[in-house]
Amino acid sequence: MIRHLLGIAWHLGGMFLLPFVLGFVAALFFEVSEVADTMWVMLGLSAVVIAPAFLSQLVGVTLKVAREGRLLRERGRLTLESGIAAVHRHVRIVTPRGWAVLVTGLSFVVCALAAKWASLSVLAVLALLLFYGTVGATSFLSTFLVGSFETSVKRRGSITREMVPAVVLAGEAAEERFTFRRVPVPPGFYLLVEDPLPARLGTTSRYAVGAGARREELLVGGRLRFTPRGLYQLGPAEVYYQDMLGLTRISLASLATAELKVLPRFRPLEIREPPRSRLQAPDVLTRPHRFATEDHFRFREYVSGDDTRRIHWKLSIRSGHLTLRQPETREVSTRTILLALDAYLPAGRMLEDAVGVEEVLDRLVETFLALAKELTERGDKVTLVAAARRPDGAGLGIETIVCARGGHQRWQDLGARVVWQGQHDLPELLDAVGAGVDGIVISSRFQAPPPAMAAGQSITWVYLPPEEALGASDPTLLQTLAGTQVNAFTWLFRLPYLAGSDENAFTAQLRTVSFHMARLAARRRLRAVAKLHGARTLQALVARGDAVYRLEPGVGTHRLVGLTGGGRGSAGLRA
Fold it and tell me: Based on the domain organization, do 134 and 187 belong to the same domain?
């Protein structure tokens, strides 16, 4: 609220008093005796130019805020804070380009007084006349334009938004489209639609249309730069009028929403030979080999006292150690397997820093789906469980899916809605299905799991060490802003976007730099936690007596490497 109040004070009065305050301060430091005789005339002329702009803005803001206040009251959303926010939104009509013109004109005033350069003062007057004249005209017209826009949109016009296609695979192209139908655009203005999309998409929606929007239908659109896995609720977009010089803008409405769902891909999964185990029972993912006889066989390393007649000599020669063949004379029945995705981070600083590890969760989700496909094709009964956003995007919940052949799209839909969260830890996920089933947990935990969990369940861990997931090092801030190491050397000497783009403005660049600085800082904090607890977490998993596999993600194929076969019910994976 304080930010809104300061903004109102500045936009409603501060910028109109600024020329007088600056002129008074300059008179204290520079010799202005040559213009002192005409001071009152200059003040009078300045007031003639500035006062109408101030009154126009005051009247326009009063009428627009009163109209919006009635709408908020009808909807039951009128509060002191919402009212102050509405006033701030309507008084904030000057664009960054407009501020640049004002600052330029005021700097010319100071330089003209300091250097006693009369010609420069002419440029200063022209710049200030242009600025305050445009502000006054826009403030006056905005009173009528906002009402005209609302009436036209309600009666016969509309602004609609859609994603084409609305559901894509990660990395595929997606296009955003806006359709304008009979939207009024007054002479001398453009209609602009703007929406800063989620940071992962790497795109800002900004479209400008002229008089063509008054036609029956006008279609504009653009492609997204990136489409990483996730469920994205887009909008509402900000709609406003902007004068042709780009100095002022008139806020009209917040509308036009859309949804984009990016499904994770199925990556091939390579499972290395599982670690040896002393257990006699088959693990949840190992299928005994079928030989020419009617018996199934499993193999384990020879230990002293075993029947030497069961040594498989050919396999022993290939493996380099004595290997014992064990007959399994009964068929292995179909197993019930719980496949859980662990996306838990403690609420607080670690969860807030999760903006720096989205790609880690993407890899976990891909492994989650790949294992589900592998197990289902083997004939096992698999149940997926994960904490994910609800389909409408509101809130989190634990969801379970019983896998069936041909149901891959349901699995992908669940994977798209999984997010880092701090509400549901592993015990809740495992209790969602119940005890007595074999469990596989895909995780990249920064801390050891709760000690009291999964009573009566065998657990196999597929673990991605967070320190390895974060990589060896992060790029520098300059490399992040430039995109590559090569461009980093030239980034400071060139415009980051096309000439004339609003993203080249100083304020826009400052927001971009602040965003990347915050993200890199979050990764540094997570990297410090991973370095401190990563090895301990892996040791804690091994100490539990469960089978543990290390996940080694790749570009096209993910690999599981066995670390320990466990000792209480899980013997590992087998391709």
Answer: no
